[in-house]
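Why this split exists: single-chain examples teach little about how molecules sit against one another. For that reason, every record in the complexes split bundles all components of an assembly together and asks for one structure covering all of them. Below is a record exactly as it appears in the raw files.
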Amino acid sequence: MTCLPSSVQASRNGSALVIVLAFVVLLSGLLVAYLTRAGIDRQLAQASFHDTKSDLLARSALDIIVADFKQEIGDGTPVTPANIQPRRWGTPPPGGTPFPNLIRRSMQGDPTGQTSSLSSGPVPSANPKRGEIIPARWNSHYLLPRASSSGNDSTPVSNFAAPDWVLVTPQGPNPAPSPSAVIGRYAYAVYDEGGMLDVNTAGFPYHAAPSQSPTPGLPLNDIGRKGSVAFADLRALPTTTTALLSAGGVNAIVGWRNFATVRPSAVFPNFSFDSPVVPGGTGTRFVNYFAGNPSIGLSQGFRTVSPTVHLNRTDQAFVTRTELIKLQREAGFGAGALQYLGTFSCERNAPTWKAGTAVITQRFYIGHLNLVTPNPTGPRVADIQKYFGLRWIDGTPGQASPPTPAVPGHWQYVGTSGNTMQDRIPAFTNDPEFFQLLNYAINRTNGDDSSHLLTTLSVGAALIDQYDDDPAADPLTGTTTTMIEYSGGWAVGLENLDPARASPSPAPSPFPQPAGMSPTPPPAIPAYVMLNRPFRNAGEFGYAFRAASGPTPTPSPNPKTLDFFTPTSSDAPILDLFTYNSAPLRSGTVNLNTQNVAVLTAILTGAFQTEQNVGPAPSPSPVASPAAKSAATNIVNATTSQAALSRADLARLSSSVINAPFTTNEETRETVARALSEVTQIRAWGLLIDVITQTGRYPPGTTSLTQPFVVEGEKRYWLHIAIDRFTGQVIDRQLEAVSE
Amino acid sequence: MLVAISVLTLLVLLVTQLVRSAASTTTLGHKRNDADSQARSLFERLALDLAQLVKRSDVSYYLKNAGTPMPGNDLAGFYSAVPGYYPTTPSPVSVVAYRVNSDSSNPVAHNCLERMGKGLDWNGASAASVPVLFLPLTLHETWPSVTSSSAYDDPDPAKRTYEIIGPQVFRFEYYYLEKTTGALVTYPGAWTSLSTVEIGDASAIMVAIAVIDSKSKALLSNSQITTLGESLPDYGSDLGPGQLLARWQSALDGITNMPRAAISHVRLYERSFPISDQ
């Protein structure tokens, strides 16, 4: 046998080794490539899985939080001032900067009993670790007061405490679980979005002529009469402790929002608008949209934008709060104003004041009063009977011999069906007509009521006279005074000018010839303020004469009018039972129990204290924002100590306002009722629930919940929700996924 | 020597077999990973778009309904609060649309799933740039490309906002979970036309896709892929959860006129996207 030389043998062995190694490398390469790809895919799949898991956890957390509110409503019967509002917890203690919008945050020891002691904020605060939520993130919606007075830094003031985590186990939330059982956690804060101005409806444009200060771009009397939150003056909103929202900022919002309606010139965000005196210009179009055209009422709930198209563009709505925040950045107005602006609101347009057994599911539409003019024809006849229980009777001429006075054309109170004159206000359960509702409001009864028939019909007649204009007269006698005949007598309204009255109207005596008339209009009252125009809100009912003595004893007993300014007023429920807007669901109303002074300030600013404000240079001037702020502060203090249960509380709240110019007389005192009655609500809890959820786990062997939590997925939602406090029903909701 | 050669040959054969087997395994794995990745990225994009869907009754949607039944591949167009391409003064809202491109003259996009993400300007920012439009102005009249499976939103390729998001996705079908009935439906009963599409009527959108990995796709011509897509039936309201994919699988199993190696690697996916605020 021949042996190979050792060098050849070694070479062969080496070759074999190289070949084997090459195969090994090849296989290893394939394996590594495959495993790498599989590993990456697995990580991606895991990320997707955790994202879905955190999304599910977020939705579950929201369900739990909403369920807590519903439970609170269920437990809170009967409704009282103590429970009409959601309970607050986790708000800063007195003495520090208040957080008017904050209702609650998850906090150890809160009434849910589910929250742990772990703060979601970084500990220590200067060194945030993964999974910890810094205060600026918690305030990325700008609903809390900011520490900085400039820029867009959302860091809240120092007395803000971050919400605590609610730890979630497979069995549900647990305040102190074993670390190994924790599968995720969430923390939340809830804000009173219903107590803010809905920026989808609030605010009007400004006109700025060259070298002039911006002035409202619509007639001051439309702003002054209020009736819509669109007439809130957003320039009264503070952006810092010393600065207010600029007209440019307001114009960016309004021009963007109502582009097709108001047709601004220039481009976003530097819109400009017509002067208010331009016929058919910005002001006219704006008022037509928000107050109706003609301005007798609305059926628009403002839950959708106007269908108006201009230059192939439409109006807009803020579809999310994020959009509002981005618009603020783009327009460059102060971020501090965002604390007072919401993007979601919804109210069922039904009263919350209640007496007897009545079930009233819809407020009475003030615009129906426009039907009631003498000598109606066509379908108006049936509508007037349906809504007012009245039937028109033509007048009868008088005769000389035997002397028989003329009977003026007048109304008969017959109720909603039949032709028989009533000797009482009929009982009702639902769908009352005008006089039934007035009687219900003033006399607290929905049963048959014969004892207040005259009073109620007289008040109703006075309201009709306030609403209609002077040409609305009986064709026979020319009397402009509304006269209502009932079984057993007559009720009459009151007009300042009535051609059928001997004085002050210059009429021949007897009038009409030849034998006068019966009944006759009542004597004029010199100080009586006549509107002779459609009401813009139920507060303007306060101008109507009240025939019976009381409950308006002071400070202006003559003339007596409906009283919306004394705390014990029996007329106050009227404020809750009538509406300028017939939409059953609507946006744009503000919770009367808001703690946001600036919001009420904006609404009150520009209000007319008297009807005599009308004119190019109104006199006295409309309510200025400092006076409005004082009034708003008093109102907030009053609702904080005793929450309002209905708009009827506006009379009480009016009495709490003790600063000029609100205190001159009854008319000025009722400015608050007029300004707030149509734009506030009590019924709905408008909430913004800010929830952050994290899925993950504690590492194996963790013994304490304070040790780091391994975050695998995170999700944040802002749930905008409106819950009917009186039924527990969710009226509307909008889920906004927050992308950060 | 002979023994050594024999052993070496045997070893080479064994190693070859091993490599082939390993390669086959990894190829199969890669194909599955390809398809899975494609489906995952598409579904995640859809999830983002639908999570930020503008849900209002006063904006229009281009979604399947009785008046626009969309046989074969479906089209979807809606507003979503996600970033998009090319706005001058970008608002947070974009027009988003999905489609499988059916243009056989478009070698790049044909039989691929495309997504349009057209960024919109703020309202009133300029006369030229279109913002979000509310009713009565509709999505499909303003951006007609959302109604087409081939037309683009701009003749200039550089300005087009369509991009291929699923090059291997050749079938795109969706249906709904109806809110009032809790049933799976082709479209909610009230949706008789585009003007009656009320997004609040649906709790969720179920999206089903068919994906063929790139290696298997190479075995088929574009017309075969088109035929393959057409052989997968539309959703019908008689189908329950998971039954659409089962029906698609049956259809795939019955195909005999295409390479089995390709057909067997068609993968089917389905995912539900909640669109309700509940």
